[in-house]
Amino acid sequence: MTAPAPTEETPGERRTREALEASGLAFEIVRHGPVRSLAEAARARGVLPAQVVKTIVVRRGEGDFLFVLVPGDRTIAWPRLRALLGVSRLSMPDKEVARDVTGYERGTITPFGSLTAWPVVADSRIPDAGRVSVGGGGHGVSATVDGADLARVLDARVADITDLDDPGPAGTARATPAGPTSTRENGRTLDESA
């Protein structure tokens, strides 16, 4: 049994809601409580796993970040993302840096209400996905929006920048995307729940 959904709006949730309202984007806030897997998150949010959108913070350089929107069943294709951005190196910040540059804890990050309006790159599948679910600024909270409207409102650069997630041993999802510029190279484990 999962824990009950939170009932009080946190400051992060309020920032997200206010930013969504200001954007003019039609949205629905869904409070579903903690989830332990992509399948559980999709079920709780009333969407397919591919319609759960992960917001991943990526560092291009010192003090230079961007949001990458990735369908839940996919992982960043680092060589394609680097080529799109015209850079030879990208990394993922640790959870403290991600919190400092967005105002959100890992697992709650969304471009809406971020402390800085970082540029957004969205995987090309998101605009065609219909209803999608993005983080709502708090644990167990999400916002359901139209994928095409999401990309448009965020002025996202849309490109094919993901690969289908490669299940690990015993069918469990990989915790890290492979790639020569991933933070695995630096001895840290990547967490795509950002």
From TrEMBL:
Segments forming domain YbaK/aminoacyl-tRNA synthetase-associated: 32-152
Low complexity bias (residue ranges): 167-184
Entry's Gene Ontology molecular function annotations: aminoacyl-tRNA deacylase activity
Signal peptide: none
Residue numbers spanned by region Disordered: 162-194
Matching SUPFAM superfamilies: YbaK/ProRS associated domain
Record's compositionally biased regions (Basic and acidic residues): 185-194
Alphabetized InterPro entries for the sequence: YbaK/aa-tRNA-synt-asso_dom_sf, YbaK/aa-tRNA-synth-assoc-dom
PANTHER family, per database record: CYTOPLASMIC PROTEIN
Name of the protein in its database record: Cys-tRNA(Pro) deacylase
